Each structure stands twice: as structure tokens, then as C-alpha cells.
DMT family transporter
Amino acid sequence: MTAVTIAQIILVMLLWAACFPLITAGLDLAPHLTFAAMRALLAGLTLTMLALALHRPLPKGLPHWAMLAIVGLGATSLGFLGMFHAAEFVSPGIATVIANTQPLLAAMLAGIVLGERLTVRGTMGLVLGFIGILSIAAPQFVAPGQQSYIFGVAYIILAALGVTVSNVVIKRIAGRVDPLMAMGLQMLIGSIPLVLIAWATEEPATVRWSFTFVGILLALSLLGTALVYWLWFSVLEKTPLNRANAFSFLIPIFGLTIGALFFDETLEWPQLAGIVFVILAVGLVSRHGTRSAEKVAG
């Protein structure tokens, strides 16, 4: 990977980590799925309108539209539904641990669908990264009252599965469709179930509109969603999924840093040890951690 690609991936992970405090703050001002649907719609409309203004081509053929629908239902519908609802039941530490099993799930699925094989070094890196995540979240695991959060765990698993499937499909269509148009359309497609469920189960009129909520919504939609997905699609056009996905283990590190800087959170020794494990894991997977099916066969 080039330095520019690595910088793009790190920026994606930093913006994804910033989404967690923004979602938490926004949930005090709007119903869960209404907030999620507004995020998806605003991000999707922004990217689609920009793509149209730049005369980017629409996807051609039913297979490409079908794959975009799968991405939308996975990353946007299931991903946002699980992420926004889990905040009601699960502490951020446990949510981070479960959500970051996604690279492990994606590694298995990528081997089947994309022909990407993990080397011994790559396998060691993913395992080490997951151990690091467990270490980072250890204080939250032993906190009182965590045993009753089974619903939140289920929502996070749902989100992780949705993102896993969508990442594999994104890699499959990368280079075949325009990134701006593809990501805008998948968000619009994925927002449809969110809008319908929110309309049926919540009261969108109860949103507490204010400069604070508008600022949170704009930051989450434009930076944490539209920009992130465009950058991520661009990365997957030139990088194996497993190597790029390994950097998602950085998200808890960025999250802890944001908490320490802005919310006076302190780091305990298991979290510091976990940060070291995560950095080593990213290094192992990003440097010759995968090989294509052709190389395996050769």
C-alpha cells in the first residue's frame, strides 16, 4: 500500500470513531431510527447530487444495481439500525468489541467470495487485533449491569454482519461503477427501510431541532458518512479487503483518544496494552498479510 492509501484508510477510521460520540449526543435529541434515516438520506442525497453535477455515470446493468441494493441493505439499513439501537442497551466498550469482529468475519467471507487468502502473518495479525480490542474494552466488561444487555449485543452483531457483507460486495464492484454515484445510491436505497420503520414505530415530529442537533446531523452525515464511504470505496478499488479492513482495529484507539481529550476519560493498563496489540496487528496484516487465489494456486 502507498502512503496516500494508508493515510486515506486512517482518515476513514478516525471519522468512523468520531461517529460514536456524535450518535450518542444526537440520540438525546431525536428518536433512534428517525435520526438514522436522516443521516442516511442526507449523506445519500449529497453524494448522488454531487455525482450528477459532475456528470458521473449511473450503474449499468441489473447485476450492478442488485449489488448496490445489497450494500445499501447491509451497510446502511442493517448497519445503522443495529448501531443506533444498540446505544440504548450496550456500553460503548462492549459495542466496540463486538463491532470490531467485523474484520474477522470479512476475512472468512472474502476468502470464499473474493479469493483473498490470509497468510500466516495476516492470520496472526487479525487474532492479535481482536485480542487488543478485548483488552481495550476489558474495564467495560466487568462494569456492573452489563449482563442484561443481550438485546444490544444482538443489535451490534446485526450491524457487524451487515457491514461485513456490504464490504465484500463493495470490493466485488469496485472499479466497475463510479464511487460517488455508487455510494450515494446505496445510501438512498438503504435509507428506505429505515424511513418506513421509523415512520411506523416512532414519531419523527418529536425531533428537538436546534443548532446543536443540526450541527451533529451535518457532521455525522457529511463527514462521518458521505466522505467516509466515498474514501472507503476508493480504497477498496486498489487494496485487498483484508488488508484495508485490518485498520478498523484502530477505531477503538481513536475512540479512546477522543474520550481522553474531550470527555476526561482515563486509560487503564489493559487499554494501553490493547493499543500496543492493535498497532502490531495492523502492521502484520497491512504488510504482506494477504495473497490472491492466483498466487495461492501458483
